[in-house]
Amino acid sequence: MHRGKGMKFVGDSRVSAVRKPNIPKDYSEYPGKTEAFWPNFLLKEWMVGAVFLVGYLCLTVAHPSPLERIADPTDTGYIPLPDWYFLFLYQLLKYTYASGPYNTIGALVMPGLAFGGLLLAPFLDRSPHRRPSKRPLATGFMLLGLASIIYLTWFSVATHDWEKAKEQGKIVAKAEIDTKDPGYAVYQKQSCIGCHGKELTGGAGPSLVGTGLKPEEIAKIAKEGKGAMPPNAYKGNDEDLKKLTEFISKLKAE
Predict the structure, then answer these.
(1) Does the structure show a pLDDT above 90 at 54?
(2) DSSP-derived secondary structure letter, 39
(3) Transmembrane among the record's keywords (predicted)?
């Protein structure tokens, strides 16, 4: 402002003199760095997605999901196995300090600390660097967690009894069980259900349906044992044993 000559305005370069509509810049300003969303970018996304979808469908056809028999709550010999992404927790619960009286520690405390650490990661390491060597705290925790998950998953797979799991989950033939038969009462009394299941279709022990064995052959196995069945597993008298063996020999697969 100058005295006697009125008032002069000085323009601010930070304020645009001419307002322009909110139009994105032309793609030609960024050669080789961008492309139109439709149809170029979206078409590429669809093509990549289709390739992965077809590959996944081929994998499911080539290796179908294994089906097991219907769950039997009376089968105390069944060994459950979770999906592969929970195997590390399954293995963790096998250790003394994370199972039994310390089951809460293995099931809640340890996973809670691990996932809590992920939530606190932005506050524990606020370094602006992107190189792993410049962020030892975050890198160390990440490598420790990754190594723990890989090791526990591998060890769980390596030590699992896959042959027994295959047998216990196998779909087996069923038979119509006459629960009023005297032989079935002996079957329950001798606690055979724990190994052979309520429907006699097997569990920790083999299926007793459609064995094709005669009563005397079944009695011999009950007294002398066979395979995983120990000798003298039957503790009753001969009269009850006869009822039991006749009952089992009559079971035919449907």
Answers:
(1) yes
(2) I
(3) yes
2 is in an annotated binding site: no
- Tokens 């896959």 -> residue: 162
Q: Is 196 annotated as a binding residue?
A: yes
The torsion angles phi and psi of 246, rounded to 5 degrees, stand at -70, -35
Confirm or deny that 58 is annotated as ligand binding: no
DSSP 109: I
User: What three-state secondary structure class fits 226?
Assistant: strand
Of 115, 248, 113, nearest to 192 (Cα)?
248
Whether cis (ω within 30° of 0) applies to the bond prior to 230 is no
Residue linked to tokens 């994105």: 24
Q: What is the pLDDT of residues 98-141, one digit of tens each?
A: 888 888 888 888 888 888 888 888 887 888 888 888 888 888 88
Rg of the chain taking only CA atoms, in angstroms: 35
CATH code that applies to domain 182-249: 1.10.760.10
Q: Is the pTM of this model over 0.70?
A: no
